[in-house]
Predict the 3D structure of the following.
Amino acid sequence: MNFELLVPVCFAAVIALIFAVPLRAKAWVSLALTGIGAVCASARAIGVLATGRSARLWSFDSPLFGHDTGSMDGLSALLVLVIAVGSVAATLYSRGYLAHHLATKSPAHTALHYASLTLMSLSMLAVVCSDGGFSFLFFWELMTVASFLLILFDAERPEVRRAALSYLIMMHVGFVLLIVGFARLSAVCGSASFALLPAYFAAQPVLPLFLVFLVGFGMKAGLFPLHVWLPEAHPAAPSHVSALMSGVMIKTGVYGILRVTAAVPAQQLQTVGYILAGLGIVTGLWGVVLAASQNDVKRLLAYSSIENIGIILLGTGIAALGKAAGNTTVACCGIAGALLHTVNHSFFKSLLFFGAGNILSQTHTTSLNALGGLGRHLPVTGLLFLVGTVAICALPPLNGFVSELLIYSGMLTGIAEGCDTLAAAGALTALALIGGIAVLAFTKLYGTVFLGSPRTHAVAEAQEVDALRIGAMALPLAGILAVGLFPQYAVQVVARATAFFGTGHSILPTLPPLCTAVCRTVWILVAVVGCLAWMRRLLLRRRTVAQGPTWGCGFTAPNVRMQYTGESFAEGLQSIARPLTHDRYEGAPVGASEIIPQAHNYDIRHRDRIGTLFAAWWVEALRLLNDRVMRLRTGKINHYVLFALAFLAAVFILSVLDLL
Amino acid sequence: MKILDFILLLAVAIAIPGVINRTRALLAGRKGTRFLQHLYDLRLLLRKGAVYSTTTSALFRAVPSVYLGAVLVALLFVPVSDLPPVLAFDGDLVAFAYTLALGRFALILGAMDTGSPFEGMGASREALYGALAEPALLLVMGTLALLTGCTSFAELFATESASGNPIVLLLLAYVLLKIAFTESGRVPVDDPRTHLELTMIHEVMCLDYCGVDMAFIKMGGWCKTAALAVLAADAVAAIGCPHWWFAAPFAVVLMGCSVGVVESTQARNKLVRNTTFILTIAALAALVFFTAYLLQLNIVLS
């Protein structure tokens, strides 16, 4: 049976099964199908990572796609594990999250959602296992369409339709570039497999094809300035879809960029390294500053995904520079850090988006300025969200710290050993700033949502979510704790995956001692904090511990509206970062001359300045041009025959004149 | 040896507030309090009970332990000139910066937990200033790595190669001192003795702590100051006298006297000027890095 037939039949069977089963069972069938796919793929992935040898998954000649192969090397295996954990957790979470939608949506609607969810998980697994070429593009497109349908779950809301449409358009612009890239590769090398990229780059100029792939994959990854779909699509999509897209799907873009970068020969790698590191710095800083300015939980998380993609690219760029200069330590630290951060980000971002889903479903809002004090009402969610927050700020003792430390050691080694010192120093400064502002953004998020007093009644009556959703959150939580507390094992796994980058196995002697030392530090930190907490308890045992109101500095009638809001928390940063945002005001603030202020309605939105790039004059010009062209579409068959005749005549004349 | 290093750091941490008070008293023409008055105050705090705000959650109670714990672990990375630190590995510079950041993170969340607008104000400022100071700190580490070719504190100051260009080292010490001023909430960034909550930064974040919790936070603050002061003193010591018996007392004198003099002679910045002040430190750090880079190129070329 050939490929063109087998895959559609399988996928049609999946869709038919989900549509056929009763409403209540759809989630479980979807979970079972995703689970089977995830377990099978993970089993192969663990085998690949354990032995260090890549495995051939499929290979056949088909009339439509030509010779096509799929295989799994270390990098694919690592991505497969990420996708497996992320999709199983998202599908598990969707059960509880969509439970109250089952009554309002039609069964077909729900079935379509679950079918898309399953297809998306399976197609992502297939994407990272394809060797490139047309099957890769096929699965890539399947993934895009499935995620488009997933975003459209709440299609009644106009902003959801808008976000989904802009997502679909941007993804297809990227897709066209990928087709161009693979077609070029296929034209020169005879096949469109990733394995032929080194041969292509060795013979042809590197930059044109590299840039085509970078933009094509960067569109999916959320690279600056192609990130504009991310902050629109994530708030529009249901939370488990946001988690799956932000935690897992954008990593397929990173995967593509890594594959292409690894194929560039060392002589030309320096330019590529500069491009990647530069883009990483801009993406990271842009993402984190915009994240700190947002006042919506899901938008903030979406921008923070952009930031983390920036960090991953920064690590890749440093690795490329290290490889170009022949410095194995820098290359290994950079690439291991980038890969580990890819894994880590999928864990904590899934966890945080699930947390955002809990907030949304229990309080019906994601606006920071309406929430507050949720830690009392959703204690488990609050605790899990705190873990995610510490991890994403790259603070010890959790996993974000380990991956950023690896990237930092790559940079510091680069500086110390004189390998692209200035680039490494620039990256170091940028990463430090990104880390610092990330702390600001996430203390703002956690502080205004979970701490303090509730700002509205709806929030004050919120209740904890069901155990199933907590169970779904436990999966990424386990990943965070495992990588954070036992980094030496995680780094062994990642070290196997770095083989694709062509730095050999020289990674093994340098990194494990470092990670053992990190592990020791982390446990010492935990122990010291534990001891201090115990001492504090001991000291307070015989003393009176009383309760009272918060000290209002002499003011005796404070109320919850006076708490610091998300907007006021980031005001200082805003005053510096104004050029990056396009602020929209409604109403007027309290004027300086108003001694006794009247009631004011004042609303401020910090829009992304790049967001308006795609609504600029040239878009309008394109639309007008399109209107002109559309005049040719008259709908009369005789006109079309005339056009065909004119075309043939033009071809004839051009060939006679030897212009073709 | 390693334990000696840690004990020495704690001694520096205890001595610095005493020297600050003495310097200030001397310049104001007062007799001043006992040298170890702050330790007596600490003992008093440790014996007290506690009052917690009804708004706060369990997180608020955990914050002081996390803060002090993080700062103590950060101390484990700091060498006193030639004395090796307790923990050392390649890249511990970053671990040092990020453990300090964990302390800051905890303190900010604790402040937000009280729901007080004043504490939110302090938290917001601390978050911004901390974020802006971070690049300066890591650039200093980067410069040290450039000078010595090592990426671990222990090797930075212990090796003979540490004797880099004296001007660069002095500038590094200056930048580190400025970072120490910022991080420990001293004039001109923040005034620990101000009476107006609206203008406070660090102190306002701890308004709702008392007793043991307050003691923990105070100790954490001293240790943090000591860690940065010792690093500055290490940089100076590396010029000619890389020994612990010079670096440790020098750290106390350097930090204590400079804080005392600045606080007796200068007013604090207007709050809006603080961002510029901290960004200037970062710019200075970048300049020092670039100078060191040019000097090194010269050495390589000639």
Observations:
- Chain A has a mean pLDDT of 89.
- The first strand of chain A starts at residue 55 and ends at 62.
- Chain A touches chain B through 85 residues (CB under 8 Å).
- The radius of gyration of chain A is 26 Å.
